[in-house]
Amino acid sequence: MLNDENRYLFKFAWKSIRRHAGRSFFIGFSVSLAVIIAVWVVAFFDGFNAQIEKAVVNTNIGFFQIQDPLYARTTDSSTPLDYSTELKNLIEMPPTLSASPELVLDGNISTPEGAAGLVVIGIDPELHKRFLPLSNNMSEGDFLSNRDEFSILIGKELAELFKFHVGDQLVLNYQDQKGNLRSEILTIKGIFNFNGKSFEKRFVYLNQKTWQKLFLDSYSDKILFNRVSVMTDGLKDAQKLANRIDKTNLSLKSWKDLNPEMAVVLEFHDGMIKFFFIIISLTITMTILTPVRMLWQERFKELKMMSIIGVSVKKFWKIGFFEAVLMIVISGFFSTIFLSTLISYQSKVGLDFRFLNDGVAIERAGIKLPGIIFPLLTINQLLVTFIFVVFVLGISYVWSIHRTLLRLKEET
Question: Which end is more exposed in the chain, N or C (fewer Cβ atoms within 10 Å of the end residue's Cβ)?
């Protein structure tokens, strides 16, 4: 609580702000506008990055992959491991939300319409349903089941390019565990429409039983894996997962390790945001410094008179401190209210930038970049807002009060 003296000085500071209402409004408005622009840019790129990350994660990568050591080094699928109950319980503990043990095989198809390289993934359908919502995004046919024999699930883009339909037969060319080149006829059970054309064209799915018969020429009646794709709340869970598999020979990789091109894009965005924030901070500080300095210079005679009647330098600093605090609270309050309203609205309706590319989707590293961007508001952004206001107004008031009191000292 303020004592009587500080309470009086606080009221004096408030009256000083009101007495110079025009200039005080300009200072507060300038700071608030700069904060709104800066934090909106941060929210925009945070939302953009979150959408890119989600798109990468949904290319059957997950936030993390726990990989067989040989597959981790060479992507050789010839030594799959058993997804035992013990390992399953270890991996699927929180913070894991879902996990999909997978077998991976490179294959290709060749038809009169052309040829295409494929990533053939052997999955446990029930586990994979909880990992990636392909089963909820079927344009034709049905999702795989554990009972299916030599059935395959393909993407809509692949189906359109090669004129495939549910029930058609697809000839898959691949190399088995012994190095033999083989071809196998598979029946298309379903066609999914999910996450982008590159994903739909490249990834096809078999159940574990079919995959093992194709590649290993036998079925072990076990769930095997080269990799276990893991969904969590984000990359912040990396250390927990690393500690969990520390005593195994398994390797842990994040989506950034598996898609370094998009990881670089996100890091570039983060660096650009920091650079932008520094420029805005310096610019607005220089802009605000002059009116704050003029505000205190205009009060020089008033301060001189107060000094003559015995008001100490310490009390002048207190008045300045209270003024700065009041301006910080006012600017921070309006900035926070406006930002919360603006970004909350835009996070629901999004910002449509598709007109910049005539509505054509842009894909990079197999990822469809979002055309509609949803800014993301976080507590950290509001904290940055407050720090920004404190920094700008704090520097401006300290410098202005110091120069004014230095001049006062010289003339008295």
Answer: N
What's 357's DSSP letter?
G
Q: Which residues contact 112 (CB under 8 A, 6 or more apart)?
A: none
- Residue 139 has which token pair? 């344009």
DSSP string, 382-411: HHHHHHHHHHHHHHHHHHHHHHHHHHHHHH
pLDDT in tens, 172-212: 999 999 989 999 999 999 999 998 888 999 999 999 999 99
pLDDT in tens, 210-240: 999 999 999 988 999 999 999 999 999 999 9
Short-list 197, 215, 194, CA closest to 206: 215
What are phi and psi for residue 116, nearest 5 degrees?
A: -155, 140
- Global pTM reads 0.78
The b-or-e profile of 312-338 (16+ CB within 10 A means b, else e) is eeebbbbbbbbbbbbbbebbbebbbeb
Structure tokens at 321: 């401190």
Tens-digit pLDDT profile for residues 7-65:
888 888 888 888 878 878 888 888 888 778 878 888 888 888 888 888 889 889 999 99
The identity of residue 302, as a single letter, is: E
Chain centroid, CA 38 distance in Å: 18
Q: Are strands 138-141 and 362-364 parallel, antiparallel or unpaired?
A: unpaired
The answer to whether the CB of 104 falls within 8 A of the CB of 227 is yes
Alpha-carbon separation of residue 11 from 151, 213, 231, 296 (angstroms): 79, 83, 55, 17
Element at 195 (helix H, strand E): none
